[in-house]
User: Which sequence fits this backbone?
């Protein structure tokens, strides 16, 4: 079928409805995940254990008839365990490349901060370029391609903080959080008939998702909206509590995800409210705070929220 903004909204609602069968009561997080996917971005989830991070990745892949893999990041994980390695083939008399788990539509990098920086860096190329290079030979990953990485905000023993270059490659950062009382009751009432990600019927396919992403690139962004994003980004660099503000890549991520956010809400143009809805998920994880601000327990999210109060949006 032909893909337009109306069909993107309809398909997005069906994807959210399907994934919510597994991740009950969290439509906003599902929308953020879909926004990242449709803008060819990646999602970082910082949350406590048992909130449904793995289920989200598997259910999202199932809803688009795509493939999903889960990589458990541990201190002894090697880069080749992610990207794949070349092995000697006795029969062919040459080295043959064997793909790693990164060759999937949705890759769950579970507890990514438990692996060494060397292993974390194995994801840098594929997240930016959509390919991995092994022995000088590039290998493209399937499309759509999305990394959903998780990290535990509570346990810091045996972890390696993600470097700024790694954080900057995540389009959005989100937190699933615990379900509210009504959702908890639904989960407990249905515990005898639990829905697994494999039970979700696909509502679309990977080819259609790629077509949707192509339409989203054409969503109109007024120059005044671009100026608003630029002023927000510049304000993060000038804030007293911030040592390193948002990069150009971060500004591009905000514009691209705002296009996707507008499309899944049925519009072919971006509004200031789209930018406001995504400013915290798109910008906060890119801020490096001053040591004094960290000591005072200042949160990057609160800085972005404060900047949205001081940076005036366009009136038209």
Assistant:
């Amino acid at each position: 079928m032909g893909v337009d903004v109306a069909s993107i909204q309809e398909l997005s609602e069906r994807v959210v409805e399907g994934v919510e069968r597994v991740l009950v009561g969290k439509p906003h997080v599902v929308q953020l995940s879909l926004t990242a996917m449709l803008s060819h971005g990646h999602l970082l989830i910082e949350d406590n254990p048992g909130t449904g991070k793995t289920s989200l990745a598997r259910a999202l892949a199932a809803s688009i008839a795509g493939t999903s893999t889960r990589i458990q990041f541990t201190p002894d994980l090697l880069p080749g365990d992610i990207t794949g390695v070349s092995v000697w083939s006795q029969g062919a008399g040459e080295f043959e490349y064997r793909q790693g788990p990164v060759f999937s539509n949705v890759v769950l990098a579970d507890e990514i901060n438990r692996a060494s920086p060397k292993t974390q860096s194995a994801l840098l190329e594929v997240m930016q370029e959509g390919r991995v290079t092994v022995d000088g030979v590039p290998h493209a990953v399937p499309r759509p391609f999305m990394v959903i990485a998780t990290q535990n905000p509570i346990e810091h023993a045996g972890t390696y903080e993600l470097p700024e270059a790694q954080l900057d490659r995540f389009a959005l950062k989100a937190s699933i959080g615990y379900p509210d009382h009504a959702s908890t009751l639904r989960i407990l009432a249905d515990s005898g008939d639990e829905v697994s990600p494999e039970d979700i019927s696909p509502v679309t396919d990977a080819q259609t998702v790629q077509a949707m992403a192509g339409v989203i690139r054409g969503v109109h962004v007024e120059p005044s909206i671009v100026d608003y994003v630029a002023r927000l980004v510049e304000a993060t660099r000038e804030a007293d509590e911030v040592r390193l503000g948002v990069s150009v890549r971060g500004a591009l991520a905000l514009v691209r995800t705002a296009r996707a956010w507008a499309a899944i809400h049925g519009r072919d143009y971006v509004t200031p409210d789209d930018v406001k809805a995504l400013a915290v998920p798109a910008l906060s994880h890119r801020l490096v705070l001053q040591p004094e601000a960290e000591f005072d327990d200042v949160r990057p999210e609160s800085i972005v929220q404060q900047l949205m109060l001081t940076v005036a949006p366009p009136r038209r």
About this structure: The two ends are 35 Å apart (CA to CA). DSSP finds 14 helices and eleven strands in the chain. Residues 1-189+203-217 form a domain with the Rossmann fold fold (CATH 3.40.50.300).
